[in-house]
Task: structure prediction
Amino acid sequence: MQALLLSWAAAGATRNALTKAMIEALEVFAPWDVNEQRAIGQILGALDDKVELNRRMNETLVAMARALFKSWFVDLGLVSNGIPVGWRWESLLREAQLVSGGTLKTDIVEYWNGTIVWASAKDVSQCSDPFLLSTERTITERGLLESATRLIPKFSTVVVARGATTGRFCLLGRDMAMNQTCYALHSAKGRPFWLADAFAHLVDELVHAAHGSVFDTITTRTLESASVLVAPDEIMDEFEAKVASIYHRILINCEQSRSLSEIRDLLLPKLISGELRVAEAERLVAEVAA
Result:
């Protein structure tokens, strides 16, 4: 009903507005039988409950990974009053490859609506999951080749670099391109999840350093100035192996929640119209949510 309400709101007024009378005049197509309505509500509610459960599980898993990072790479120096032999402080960009995005010309239709996912600051800032899987817009191979954007590898950490949501970040759940309002950090040494945890520990400091201009901006210089505590390779690899299993579980939950949300949106009109019966939908939901 959103498109209909927006069209009403925009008709005949200087500013978009909905009145009480408009909302009262809205007619909703629904099954006549209240029991049928309740059954549909239970089916859709079961999908929402599973999505919410996955969200809470992911919150716990992310907290576990961050706590593990803190105990290994933050608290160690405080407890021992110094770092162990072989450990060192390094610039963040010694451990990560910094990748910039690019914007495509909107008037070239051949650049848009392709198979390549293209992330904007809006996509990153509004991502409620640890992993970004889908975006508002997609681009074509031609758009990728003929613009400044490039394909960013899966598991890179992407951060909004300017604007009101500067500092919002997430991991990429798949290879994708991005626009110029974001930076991507790709692990130079095959440790993307250590890098994600290290960045999460640094992000408040980076955002604080970005204050003071008309628009908050994280620059290359900001990232170069950030330091991380690095251990010998065998310890770094051990940590990466521990948190990798956690992050892969998080990604599975994110992918399942995305599928469940798509199924919910597909089922709703079919159930309301009677094209799909409740019993059939229940069987489908049971299979997917298992």
DSSP finds eleven helices and ten strands in the chain. The CA atoms of residues 155 and 172 lie 5 Å apart.
